[in-house]
Amino acid sequence: MASRLKFENSCEVGVFSRLTNAYCLVAAGGAENFVSVFEAELAGVIPVVRASIGGTRIVGRLCVGNKNGLLLPHTTTDQELQHLKNSLPDQVVVQRIDERLSALGNCIACNDHVALTNPDLTKETEELISDVLGVEVFRQTIAGNILVGSFCTFSNKGGLVHPRTSVEDLDELSTLLQVPLVAGTVNRGSEVIASGMAVNDWAAFCGSDTTATELSVVESVFRLRDGRPGALGADVRKSLVESCFV
Amino acid sequence: MRLEKCWFCSSTVYPGHGIQFVRNDAKVFRFCRSKCHKNFKMKRNPRKVKWTKAYRRLRGKDMTQDSTFEFERKRNRPERYDRNVTEQTLKAIPLITKIRHERQKTHISDRQKQGKSKQREKDAKEVEQDFHMLPKMLQETKVKVRVTQQQTEDNVMEE
Predict the structure, then answer these.
(1) CB A107 within 8 A of CB A101
(2) What PROSITE patterns does the record tag this protein with (chain B) (predicted)?
(3) pTM
């Protein structure tokens, strides 16, 4: 089920949180009602960890992870690194990377099997990604933009990409990732998908500005609706954005 | 808080000291004091500036490779907190520092020992050459030493 929430009057939920199948990171020091929404949904299932990275609250855009591991930028302090390692389950490998592009959440989009990366990342980083996260890495651009981590988000069940992605690109990405993809928006037409929402295999959190149409698209492509098997229903097809952009 | 190393002289930069310079390619340069910062701005290469650790290590004047240096390496993959491990580590830190200092001292004294034997040879040569310049008393003792030395040499040759 998809919930709508705000972080301190900002609808960019994906900036202040990082949601995976094994853990959830939220920004430390903000209002408690932001964290409590996550906890209400996820409490017993996976740990919800309050964290900061390099003293900042934008944890969602700086780190990237899946159920196998978590990658952090070089700006992470030793104390934060230790805190994360202590709070997360033992199977999750926590690793700090030395990379010039330190906003890893904007450069890398991943699920438990595949990762899309910014083509400008160095080779060592790519090897570390495949090693720590246990994924196959593809260098790709989305709608001509190199920041794949911001403009698309996908889980093991489905994915949402930038609304201006062409149909051929969409098909290509779909075959690479092996999940159904849809081009759409969140937060009332915001093109920066991953900043506007946090999603894993069974839960999604979108900004308050997300319209009901966008929310239903999200729920169907990520298969969040209870008991609904398989592909997108006919009632949702009309509202899909891909038909608007040829 | 982290104790960083000065980029120029490699000494530790404590909190509240020094300047950090971030270049356009996102590389951070940390300096412990304005001396190092000004040398950097003059584009001096620390490997050529005699008082820096980089120069001393490059020229073999200071110890470069040792197992005690491995303890201070920056680690990017942390381990879960364990109270016993932390306790042992805190106990071990002063011991390791002491051992490292000892090893550095022996490295330097070993390096200087070679100079000592060379100096002795030079002194012996000088005594031989300028024997007449020695004061009378010393000359007598030196002659006695020479004679006994020659006697022992003859004995050895006879044998």
Answers:
(1) yes
(2) RIBOSOMAL_L24E (PS01073)
(3) 0.83
